[in-house]
Amino acid sequence: MNTFLQQVINGISQGSAYALIALGYTMVYGVLRLINFAHSDVYMFGAFMGYYLANNRWVQSRLGTSPASAIVIMLGAMILSAGLGILIERFAYRPNRSASPFTLAFWFGILGAAAGQLIGQSFATLVAGAGIGILIGVVIEKAGLRPVKQDSRLGLLIIAIGVSLFLENGGQQVFGADPKFFPEIIPTTLMNFGSLKVDSQKLIVLGVAVVLMVLLNLLVHYTKTGKAMRAVSHNLDAAKLMGINTDRIIAVTFAVGSALAGAGGILVALLYPRIDPLMGVTPGLKAFVAAVLGGIGNITGAMIGGLILGLAEVMAVGYGESTYRDAIAFIILVLILLLKPDGIMGKGSTEKV
Amino acid sequence: MKKWLFWFSAIVVLAAMQAGVRDVIGPYYFQILILVGINIILAVSLNLINGVTGQFSIGHAGFYAVGAYTSASLVYYGQTSIRAAISFLPHMAQDVVLLLLGLLAGAIAAGIAGLAVGIPSLRLRGDYLAIVTLGFGEIIRVLILNIDAIGASRGFSGIPLLSNFFWVYFFVLVTVVVVHNLVDSSYGRAFISIRDDEIAAEAMGIDTTRFKVMAFVISSMFAGIAGGLFGHFEMNLHPNSFLFTTSFYLIIMIVVGGLGSIEGAILGAILVTVVLEAFRGFGPFRLVNFAVLLVLIMLYRPQGLAGNWRLFRKAGAR
Hints:
The complex is a heterodimer of chains A (about 350) and B (about 325). By secondary structure, chain A is mainly alpha-helical. In chain A, about 75% of the residues lie in helices and about 5% in strands. In chain A, strands 1-4 form a two-stranded antiparallel ribbon. Chain A has a two-stranded antiparallel ribbon with strand order 2-3. Chain A is globular, with a radius of gyration of 21 Å. Chain B is mainly alpha-helical and about 325 residues long. Chain B has a domain at about 25-245. In chain B, helix 1 (about 1-50) packs across helix 10, helix 2 (about 60-85) packs antiparallel against helix 3 and helix 6 crosses helix 8. The chains are: A mainly alpha (about 350), B mainly alpha (about 325). Chains A and B meet through helix 5, helix 7, helix 12 and helix 14 of A and helix 4, helix 9 and helix 11 of B.
């Protein structure tokens, strides 16, 4: 009985981390009908930002290892992740919908920076390369090359895959391909509840996740922005006609989802301190499964889906074959899609001709 | 008569190239050439389901893996007894029989896997189908990781070298011709009608589920053949060759080339394989550059590089 309870706690804390990532998937799917494959890399990015903030001299000397420093690290990583989310949306997805100047300049700048780094191996050549790239991009854009607007969701999906590839491989260059060890920003203590021993990190993960989800619910249901988000996810074109600035709302959605993923990255790093640029791939897929499980586009569903997935996985590892761990998520996915394709909380939709 | 002439001359040309191509271009480019051929088979077959029938599958690597492992294990474990049964043939002919048996087994196994995946999941549409196929692909890989007889996570090594330039490009031809003729047939019209408007197709009396499953199974069988050719060329297999990223690369090939057209799939397979190799000069930034290029192509030329360009005029695909 005790081991069972122990497993339940493990499962819930693991699941709440999945749920945080799943929320970003579900929110983006809600507004753009896009499986944002790059989301799992935002989660990786969040963990790395937390790592660098925690090792930052200023943060260390000012705050030490106090709860305040943990909060600063967390918020900092969330804000940076939100920024990355906005950048992704602005330069990879928005050009598909509406006029977005400087798209080419942005990507050429990145190519130029890579070229500069490759040629000179120094920061100066990197900046020079980026500058030249941006210049070429601006010139070509002025000459009239504009992104082609398209409503093919397949094209958007390929772009998402491209951005994900870009972030994973860019991450290997910027952060280094070797794994890093996330510092213990909150000291671990073992807490006793009767005969049950619980690692304090797990409770913290659970607590932070719950707080963030409550905040998200408040944002979505009790603010004007939240109302606009719901309107956009209900019907983008109608929302636009009603005077909602849909591009702004989509950017906000990406920012919020990415911030949650960044927080998820840090929380998972608290449980499993090994972080590397490819760490997002598997949890990202599983979080997506969680989102589908709960009914994609549905925020409550994503939370429930995450918890179920976390519990199922931990139970499977605890009582069955651990080598099949990664297959569990997909077996659940296949079953749920075959039995109830709209997910647990999803509303069935009938297609009208 | 004309068909007979086509195949005869193709076989003669391929056999002549087989004799010399490796020595002329060197082992490195030869390796790439073989990889290009295998990727063409994969891309053209994936295009049948994704481009022609309009069903978005991202689990092709799973069927590729089933074919590769089935074919390799049949030859690996059955080699001695099969060779004994056909010992009256010269050694080279025995190799050919072994390879063809292996490919047949790979194709059948992959086809059965395709049927098993297709029947339940093809009721789903769009993204849901995509994610289920992705899930099945991963399940297949995890299963392989847990079967000790085929090497599990160690990889499956000691597979005899049976496939070569001739066989790879012979099957490239077979795949292209079969898919091309299929698209031009009444079956192909049904596939295309499902892509263009599933509800209208159904209203016209087309059994959409049946045709979708058919496209899926045929596509999987060719992936299985590609897997068999790959295993018998590389002589070892590892589950990491069949990650979902492999499926992603295949999708990228057909979309970059121009979705729905065979020419596009061929062009995409060649381009992506060659560009990925050529970018090795960029060292660590190889995949970064590749990813940026991919995003730019999709933003500025979403119809793919081939666009509306057609080599085979009669082809029905858009």
